[in-house]
Every structure is written in C-alpha cells, then in structure tokens.
Amino acid sequence: MSVTPVPLLSVTEIVKRFAGITALSDVSLRVETGEAVGLIGPNGAGKTTLFNCLLGILRPDGGRVQLDGHDITGWPVYRRARSGFGRTFQRIELFAGMTVVEHFLVAARARRGDGRLWKDVVGLDRPRPQDREEAERTLELLGLTDVANRSVEALSLGRGRLVEVGRALMTEPKLLLLDEPSSGLDRSETAELTETLEVVRRERGTAILLVEHDVEMVQRFATRLYVLDFGTLIAEGPTRSVMSDPAVRRAYLGESGEGEPGVGEAV
Amino acid sequence: MTDFISYVIRGIPFGCVFALVAVGLVLTYRTSGVFNLAFGAQAFVSAAVYYDTRVRHEWPIILSFLLAVVVVGPLVGFILDRFIFRYMRSASELSRLVAALGLLVAIPQMVQLWFGQSPSFGVVGIWPSSQGSNFAVYHLGDYSLNGDQVATLIATFIVGVGLTAMFRYSSIGLRMRAVVESPRMTELQGINADRIGTFAWMLSSLIAGLAGVLLAPLFAQVNSNNFTILIVAALAAAAFGKLSSIPLTLLGGVGLGVLGGILAGYLPTNSVLAQGLRPSLPFVVLFLLLIFSPALRRRREVKDPLAGVDPPPPGLAAIERSPALTWSTRIFGLIVGLGVIAFVMNDRYWLLLAIQALIFATIFLSYTVITGMAGQISLCQATFAAIGAFTTAQLVNAYDIPVMLTIVIGAVVAAVVGGLFSIPVLRLGGIYLALATFAFALMFESILVPLDWVGGGATPLKVPRPVIGPVDFGSDRAFFFLCLVILIAVSFLVILVRGGATGRFLDALRGSEIAAQSIGINPSRARIVAFALSAGIAGLGGGLFATQVGFAQPADFAYFYSLFFVVLVVTLGSRTVEGAINAAIGFIVVQELLKRIGLSASWEPIFFGLGAITYAKNPEGILEAQKRRSNAFVQRQFNRFKNTTTDPVPAEPSST
Ligand SMILES: Nc1ncnc2c1ncn2[C@@H]1O[C@H](COP(=O)(O)OP(=O)(O)OP(=O)(O)O)[C@@H](O)[C@H]1O
Ligand SMILES: [Mg+2]
C-alpha cells in the first residue's frame, strides 16, 4: 500500500495514563482520505480512550495528533469537530428531548460555526432549506424517515445508534470515528449498516475508523486493521493478514482459548 | 505579636461554628447527594427555639439546650429527609438544589412568623454564668476567652472527635461510608440506605442546631442574616475540604474564622472597605475557592451509578397540542388580556400592581434564558437587576441623559458584567455555578452597593420616569403601555433566540454536553451569550423598576430576591415566556391576596419556597404540567366530539 506524504489523520506515540494504569502507551496510527480502517481489541484495551484522545475529550499525556498535516493536539473538542472529525459514542449520547430530525438540523447548523446573537434576534439563523433537504437525505440513507419527528427517547437502542451516525454525517466529516456501532443491532441491521457505511465512504470520500467487536462486520468493512491490547498496538496491516496473526488470536481469544467463532478461520 | 494572637484567638470560636455547619453539609452531601443550603436556616430554627425558651420564658439552660439542639434540630432533619429528600434520591442534582433553595427561602420566614421579624438582642449562651451575664472570663496567660467562646471550642472538639470515632469504629459509621459510595449498591447488600440517610440527616441537623445555638451569643443577637453568612462560610469550608474530607473541612472552617478575626483586628473599623470586607470575607473566600480549586472544578457531581437517569423534559404543551386548540387558546388569552387592560385603566391601585407585574415578568424572562434555555441556576439575577437600576440612576443624576437611554445603557452594562462574570464560573457548571453566583450576589451587596458610586450612599438615588418625544411616562397609564411594549419586545427576543442557533445549541448542550461538542458546538460561547443575555434582560427590568418606584433603592434588590425569584419562577415554569408571565402575576396576586386576608407577607416566600419542591416532579413548572394535562383532556373531548379516531391525542408521558 502506498502511503501519501500527508495522511488525513496521523497519530504519533499517544500516551494516556489514568491513576495507576497506562491506558495507551505509544500508540501510533494513520488513516488516509476515504479509507476504511478497523480498530479492534479486547475489552478495556483502550479503544474508546484513544477516540477520546483523538477528539480532545481527554488530554493525552504525550504524543501528537495531526489532521491534514496540522498539529491539532491542543485544540478543543468543538474546533476539531469543525475541522473534520465526526464520531459516535459507545454509550449512546443523544440530545434528550429533541426529535431525530432536530438532531440532524442542529448538527448541520453547528458545522457552520458559532451563531451570532443578532442573527437569532432578527430571525436570520433558522434552519435553511438546503439543511432540511440534507437531513431528508440522511434520514433516508439510514432508514429513519418514519421516525423523523419522533423524540429520540422513543427509539430502540439500535436506531438510536443510527441517529448518532446520521448526526455525525450531517457535519460532513472527513473522518468518521465509530465506537461499536453494531452493538444493539441484530444481524441484518448490522449488515445494512455496513453497507450504508460503505456507500458513505465511496460516495462522499469519508474516511472511517471503526471500533467493533463484531468480527464479521470488521472483516467485511475494513481494508486495514489495528489491534490494541492493554494499551499497546500488537498488530497492524491489511485485514486478512492481521486476522491470521497468532498474537492477535491469542489476545482476542483470551486465556480460555475458546473465543468468538470466526476469528482467523473465517479468513 | 500579642495583638495578633489575641485576634487569632478571637476568630477561633467563629471558625468552630463555621466548621460545625460545614461538617453537617459534607455529611449529608456524601450520604444523600443533597447540598443542603438550608442548614443555615436550620441553625436559625434552633437558635430561635433556644432564645425563646431560655430568654423569653426563662427555662433552665439544660432544658432549653436539650429542646433546641437535641430535639428540634434532629426533628427538622428527620422531616426534611422523610418527606422531601428521600424521594429525590434519583432526581437530578439541579432539582435537589432547587428544593434546598426553596427551604432556604421558606424556613427562616416560617421561624420569623413565630419568632418575630427583627433581630433579638440580649442572647445568653449555654455556658453557665452568674446572674445570666456572660462575662465569665477565662485567662490563658495574656489572653482571655469568655464562657461562650469556651463552650464553642469544647463543643466543636467533641463533635470532631465523636465523628471521627464513629466513622472509624461504629457499625453505623461504616455503613454510612458504604452508602456514600452507592446507595443502591448498598441496598443490594441488605443495608437499608434509607435508614442510614435518615440517620445522617438527623445527625447533621443536630450539629447545625448546635452551631446555631453557639453562634447567636457570638454575634450577640439572633438575626436571620447572620445565618446566611453562616451557611456561606460553611460552604467555603466544605469547598476547602473538597466536599469529602471532614478533617480538612474542620480546618477550613476554623481557618476562615481566624482570618476574619485577623482582618477585624487590623483593618481600620471606620473605612468603607473594612465595613464591607469583614462580613463578606466568607463570600469572597467561597468565590475564590470555587474559581481556583481545580479539584472542585473537575469533580463530577456525586452520582449513583445505579440511580435512574433523569427522564427527559416532555415537550412543551404548546408544541404538542393541535394548532386549532393553540389558536383558540391564544384568542382567549388576548381577550382576557384586553379585559384586564380595560379594567386596570380605570383603577389606579390595580394599575400600579399591573405595572409591577409587567416589570417583574420582564425580569423573570431572564430566568427563561438562563434556567429554561441554558439549564443553569443563577442566584444573582437580582444583582444584575440592581446593576441596571444603579447604572440608570447614576447616569441620570450625573449627566443629562434621557432616562429611557440610561435604562438601555444599564441593561448593556448588566449584560457585559454578566458575560464577563460567566467566563470564570461557567466551567464549574451545575451546583457550583449556582454557589458562585450566590457568592457573587452577596459580595456585590456587601462590598459594592454601600459605595457612593454604586448604591448612592445613604440616600437612595432618584430616578424620574422617562419622557419620549411628546409622551411623558410620568402618568401611570402611559407608563403601563411602555412596560407592556417592553415586555412584548423582550418576549419576542427570547422566543427568537430560543428558535435560533443559540437556542438550539443550548438545547443540544443540555441534552448531552459531550455530543454537542463533538458536532462542533462551542459550549462556553453559547453559555456566555446566554448568561449575558439573561443579565441584560434582568438589568433592563431593574432599570424599569427603578423608574417605576422613583428611586434605585438597594433594599429592592437584596440578595434574598435572587433566591426567592428562582424559587418562584422555577415553581411556576422557567421554560416558557408564559411561565415568566405567570410567575409575575402569581407574585403580585399572592402578595395582594395576603394583604387583603390580613396575613403576613412572609407567607408568600413560604408558599413558593415549599412549592419549589415540586420542581423535581415537574421540571417545566406546575402550570405547564397542568396545561399539558388539561390539553390532553380538552383534546380528548374534542376528538370525541368530532367522533373520529384519526389524529390521536399526543400521548401523555407515562413516567412520573
Ligand atoms: N476516565 C477514566 N478513568 C480511569 N480509568 C479509565 C477511564 N476511562 C477508561 N479507563 C480505563 O482505561 C482502560 C481502557 O478503557 P477503554 O474504555 O478505552 O477500553 P475499550 O477498549 O474501549 O473497551 P471496551 O471494548 O470495553 O469498550 C480500561 O482499563 C479502563 O478501565
Ligand atoms: Mg470502548
């Protein structure tokens, strides 16, 4: 695989410590424009922590994060979001009390930066027609049209995750970070989501970094994989070769030796 | 040097009392998650009971003490826990704060109904002394302490040692420590968390009562204001102990007392600075601690991992109901409004009340912004109103500027102060933000208001009514319409901002701060704007109020109003413009009713203070909740009438 001089995302030797434990030690990775990359690892490996460091929700204790060649390590969360990060959360984070379409509209508005109070006052900063059209399209893409005006509390967990994906897409990210989007979804829903993500990646050129326990989904979706274990990268490379790496299988299958079926042998 | 030590010694007893209340505060906070701002009020209850029995009815010391501290103190705690806070375990931090605020407003008023409004002097402490005089003096080398001071030291020592021993060795102490971690988890292990909670409440209320009885003789009077200072000092001490460490909390309380003693000793007694600074020391310390203590800033609220999450606020009634119903409601409202206007135009007395209601509605709209939209509780809105009023008054008196213009300038100044003030406190969030605004209100009142260039000194500043072109608003009828127009304009402002980007960003932030940030919303900016807007609206209302009264009087903007208004608006509805108007009408009408019936005006804060407890159940306000219920009812009848099954009634949220 050829590596362009300036990757979309480049993470260099990130270190993150919590009281007593090192959640990430010297993790480096890169994601190219429009690429589909998987990040896997057992529970507690540090995947969510890495996402939080990328987005600025956590301050890493060392290392650098670059987006399009700019060092964004010290930037606040909202600024990173505006410059091209979109994400979903492992523990669902929706705006209580808002409808699905409102989620999408507020995300579309947030993309354009801070509001001006005087514009609100003269009624200029209302949702625009093109935002509404965009929201319609996103609703359709994710199959949420029937619940567009439903408050998010009324949705199932699986559809809530889709709302999160849609909300992130509405900000037109260059890089989408998805934290276990398939949990709460059944098999067919997962397959559908995988396809949707593939469409998004192809048509919009959005790079996607996917954290996922569903091995089948990862294998179908990601072309390249990183494997985290206890805060260190233990493997990286094309999906096929990583999946058959003995170290990965050991970490994934754990001490017991009998893990999820499909790791390795499905390749 | 001897001076210094004697100042230190003089400060220690005060510090001990602060420390006692602070320990109670930490204890209840850790066991029930309630930040009980009402401990100062509870201390006042015990002090009043002690004074009444001991001085007015000449009971023996021991009997008065037992009744005030051992019976009444814990009893109040028991009642608060059993009937209020027990049901709020899984309520949001904010609704618990609102309930505690309601009590802080209501309890002193209830006591004053029975005890009397004015401070009582001639307090006798618990130290036995000959002939009821408290001049038993004890010498320690060159230094001396009187009996009350000695009693305070001993009592604090006993409480400190007793609590430490209890947590270390007794089984109830150990179980309390378990409850602190997670009430639900503890219950799964077969420990009755409710019972532990009740015990903690009674214990800390006993300590608060003890503090009250000890404090009164130190100030030589029983006066509810001293108990406000007491709770703020205790908050500062608790903040010093990071809301968890009892030894540090004790140390913080004593340190604060000592600092106060030293200041009192060295500052010249007659300077304005000294007179303002000395009593406001706890406010300043609390404010600085909140802003500069990183531990507090980063600390998440005590949250039970197994507790239920807040149910989301239900949609506004106006959104859920059908357009036909909305329009008929609006037309009905318009007719009633016109009727009221026709009525007050012919009744001077009610006209004045109506003008007041309009002005208060304007001020209350500032809560619609800060609490309804931004989800924050601010305890300094009366301060922003005061800034508007004083700016107006100073400008009118110093320069020849038209009054209407000075009111606008006043609003702008208030907005700027609000915006600037919000920058350091916003990252606190939730309950700590509320405390910081409280400290700010008290600092403003005790340090700035007495200054000539702010409050105008001894005589209140005159503020004339505005004159715009040919219209002189000196006539109440004309002024009524001016206030009406301003209220309508501000209402539209609020509605527009709520529907615009600012409002939507604030909605998102209230829903999930972290998700809002991750779609690119700048949380500080949105909140600073909300704070400034809210302060500006309050400042505008304050300026209007001053022109209505004819003076800018500090007493009209006392910190008490900040507390009372929160409680009032939150009870009646802080999320809608309608709620603010309802709150203003409620405020004026209840006041008037009490006057007509011949009841004390204290009943109003009591009524709304206790009403605030309903906030946990109806975060959108009781009127809004009623409206939804009646909407559903009317809609059902409507549908039955139409005899169709299409267009079903919007389901009423089933939870709570
Ligand atoms: N805020 C925190 N404070 C302390 N430790 C934390 C914090 N967040 C995460 N950790 C610890 O860091 C480690 C990595 O956690 P992380 O949530 O990143 O794992 P993960 O790979 O996302 O796991 P999972 O697959 O279960 O989601 C864990 O040991 C976790 O306990
Ligand atoms: Mg995770």
List the helices and strands and how they pair.
The complex is a heterodimer of chains A (267) and B (656).
Chain A: E1 9-18, E2 21-31, E3 36-40, H1 47-55, E4 62-67, E5 70-71, H2 77-82, E6 85-87, H3 100-111, H4 117-121, H5 129-142, H6 157-170, E7 175-179, H7 187-204, E8 207-211, H8 215-221, E9 224-229, E10 232-238, H9 239-243, H10 246-253
Parallel strand pairs in A: 3-8, 3-9, 6-7, 7-8
Antiparallel strand pairs in A: 1-2, 1-4, 4-5, 9-10
Chain B: H1 2-32, H2 39-56, H3 61-83, H4 93-115, E1 120-121, E2 137-140, E3 143-146, H5 147-169, H6 171-181, H7 183-188, H8 193-219, E4 221-222, H9 224-240, H10 246-266, H11 272-292, H12 294-298, H13 317-320, H14 323-345, H15 348-373, H16 381-398, H17 403-426, H18 430-448, H19 452-455, E5 461-462, E6 467-468, E7 471-472, H20 476-499, H21 501-511, H22 513-518, H23 523-549, E8 551-552, H24 559-572, H25 577-597, H26 603-611, H27 622-642
Antiparallel strand pairs in B: 1-4, 2-3, 5-8, 6-7
The structure holds adenosine-5'-triphosphate (ATP) and magnesium ion (MG).
Describe this structure in words.
The complex is a heterodimer of chains A (267) and B (656). Chain A has ten helices and ten strands. With 267 residues, chain A is α/β, with parallel strands linked by helices. Chain A folds into two domains: 1-84 and 173-267, 3-Layer(aba) Sandwich (Rossmann fold), CATH 3.40.50.300; 94-172, no CATH class. In chain A, the strands form two sheets. A six-stranded mixed beta sheet of chain A has the order 6-7-8-3-9-10, with helices on both faces. A four-stranded antiparallel beta sheet of chain A has the order 2-1-4-5, covered by helices on one side. In chain A, β9 (224-229) and β10 form a beta hairpin. The model of chain A is unreliable at 255-267 (pLDDT under 50). With 656 residues, chain B is mainly α. Chain B is 73% helix and 3% strand. Chain B has 27 helices and eight strands. Chain B has a two-stranded antiparallel ribbon with strand order 1-4. The longest helix of chain B has 31 residues, at 2-32. Chain B is globular and about 75 Å long. The N and C termini of chain B lie far apart (64 Å). The structure holds adenosine-5'-triphosphate (ATP) and magnesium ion. The site of adenosine-5'-triphosphate has 12 residues of chain A, from β2 and α1.
